[in-house]
Amino acid sequence: MSPGQIAALVAAGAFVLLVLLLAIPLLKLGRTLDEATIAIRKAHENTDPLFTGANTTLNHVNTQLERVDGITANARAVSGNVSALTSLFTATLGGPLVKAAAFSYGVSKALRARRKRTAAMEPTGRHSRRSARRSGKR
């Protein structure tokens, strides 16, 4: 055998060894891809019930939102009625009630002032006797 043939045999052996070493990761990669394909297929099969459940949930939510819209419309109408009633009450009874309250306050203040004046002018009762003793009058 010539040195060229020996070199060719060594190169062929190295190439076979390289192919064997690369075949192991390629086989593992193939298995990984097969498992990934199976997982994707299972996930796709399980998404149909999830989408059906999500669609049902959204339909229920939409129904509840329609009910809430009705409730808020009724609450808006009630608050408008209460506002109108308050305005009516203020217009009809508010003015006279304020005037009556102001009048009663003025009368009570005038009576208190008058009592103080009369008490200061005419000393009578226990309080006036004490002040009379202090001043020397009896």
Automatic annotation (TrEMBL):
It comes from the Bacteria. The chain crosses the membrane at residues 6-27. Residues 114-138 are annotated as: Disordered. Residues 126-138 have a biased composition (Basic residues). Keywords: Membrane, Transmembrane, Transmembrane helix. InterPro entries: UPF0478. This is DUF948 domain-containing protein. It comes from Crossiella cryophila.
